[in-house]
Amino acid sequence: MPTKEERAVEACQEAEKLNNAGMALTRAGDFPRAIDTFRDGLSRLRGLPPSPAVKQAEAALSGNVAQPLMRLGQLQEAAVLLGRQGALAEEIGNAQSYSNALNSLAICYLQAGDDKEAERLFEMRLPITERLGDRKGEGNTLNNLAQIYVQRRQYGPATAMLNRRIELAKQVGDRRGQASGLVNLSRVYSETAKPDRARTSLVEALSIMRADGDPAPARWRPPWPACEHAASLPQSENPLGGLRWTTRT
């Protein structure tokens, strides 16, 4: 007869396997099956003693099931799960998991149209990423905050954040992040009537994508009018969400 501790270890192992399967399904775009798989993993943890290992597993599953829920527009349930992830991460002292929960929760609020709460959560995350030395996470948070400022037409802080985001991406070799930051900076320059700077940023972004083997149709046009003179530059059918503003995790 296995002990409680042995049952807990076995349940955590089963939950981990289901978590990995759910992540694979999420990457494949099969969101309903991913949600069911993550929920199955969470069900294996119910009734177990709240050890750090059990809390860690529950935090991971809660955060991961929120991602396909957000993709399907089930934002309220996703927010509850992300709040649970954050609370568990705080309890066990997992700063990276807590940082991830804040970021995803901020994106959830942003999708729901609450940019003030999203801004608050992104700003909470920023110093955590700095303390962790998570420069990619810091850059993505700056990118997401810049999105909010551009929507408010606060172009000064948005430009500063995007320039910092691009620099951080260079430091960690995040070429996709660098290209994304340059595209977003191009939009800022476009909206502030600086077409030459907009074109320069866009050309640099597309050069990075070309160098990374990103195929591109010749007739692509950027999604803002002031950059239409760069229309002949190639890029793929749908990189970086169609080169529109996208939040980054």
In short:
The chain is mostly helical and 249 residues long.
Q: Low-confidence parts, pLDDT < 50 over ≥5 residues? A: 216-221, 223-249
Q: Per the principal axes of the C-alpha atoms, what is the gross shape?
A: elongated
Order of helix and strand elements from N to C terminus: HHHHHHHHHHH
The major β-sheet equals: none
Which class of secondary structure composition applies to the elements?
mainly alpha
**Rounded average pLDDT:** 85
Radius of gyration over all CA atoms, rounded: 20 Å
Helical segment tally? 11
Strand percentage lies at under 5%
Helix content: over 70%
Q: Tally of extended strands?
A: 0
Compute the separation of the termini in Å: 44 Å
Describe this structure in words.
The chain has eleven helices and no strands. It is mainly α. Helix 6 (115-132) packs antiparallel against helix 7 (135-151) and helix 7 (135-151) runs antiparallel to helix 8. It is elongated, with a radius of gyration of 20 Å.
Features:
disordered C terminus; 249 residues; mainly alpha
Describe the secondary structure blueprint for this structure:
Elements: H1 4-27, H2 31-45, H3 52-71, H4 75-92, H5 95-111, H6 115-132, H7 135-151, H8 155-172, H9 175-191, H10 195-211, H11 240-243
Helix pairs in contact: 1-2, 1-3, 2-3, 3-4, 3-5, 4-5, 5-6, 6-7, 7-8, 7-9, 8-9, 9-10
